[in-house]
Amino acid sequence: MNKQMRAVFTIVDYSRGKQIADIYINEQIPIRIVTHGHGMADSVILDYLGLGENKKSIMISLLSPERTKRIFSILEEKMYLKKPGKGIAFSVPVSSMTSFLSSIVEADSTKNTELIKEDELNMADGYQHELIISIITKGHFPEVKAAASAAGAKGGTLIHALGLGGEEAQKFLGISIQPEKDVILIVVRKDEKNKVMKAIAEAAGINTEGRGISFSLPVDCALGLSETAIPQFNTEETIE
């Protein structure tokens, strides 16, 4: 893989989900995953702040750097993601992927690509934000939400998952890997990362009932992250 690809996350109100899907379809993005979520902020507060509805649409895709810049430019122009309450989008560098997947993304990078100046979208080597990923025992999200918010996190997304840890992982961690887990995604400023991760560890870390572990990844481009936004966490909706 000649270029470092990006995993691009886009989260908007559910009513705007079709617009996001149409953009990705029109741009012929070959790899995209869609799921739904719910905001956990009180609906009255959301109405008062103009932050939109509780139900959310989440799009995840894999793109080349050039395609990432283009899709962010389109999201900014058509979805107004730089305005508060319109949603967020961010990208995370991907260190490796299978050769088949890489060939698809590489081929896609040559299509319909209009180069955009890096400084227009703040995509640079000096990362300003980081994505914190916390994996905890199901049911302990409230502790993480409270701790992260108190430490300065402006929002997050909860995804329900299954633990697949083998015997070696269980032996190393000294705990039993429960099948149901909560995976929490939180984007924070780089200078806030350590404080937020420490707060999460104290509230739901490996030595608590939450049995949580956390790690972070650099976010190299972002839209819609408001430093003054009221903390608003989203939780995944189970789709039958």
TrEMBL record:
Pfam entry (one): P-II
Species whose genome carries this gene: Cellulosilyticum lentocellum (strain ATCC 49066 / DSM 5427 / NCIMB 11756 / RHM5) (Clostridium lentocellum)
Top-rank taxon, per record: Bacteria
Lineage: Bacteria, Bacillati, Bacillota, Clostridia, Lachnospirales
Any one GO biological process: regulation of nitrogen utilization
GO terms of molecular function: enzyme regulator activity
SUPFAM superfamilies per record: GlnB-like (SSF54913)
SMART domains, per the entry: P-II
The protein's name: Nitrogen regulatory protein P-II
InterPro entries: N-reg_PII, N-reg_PII-like_a/b, N-reg_PII/ATP_PRibTrfase_C
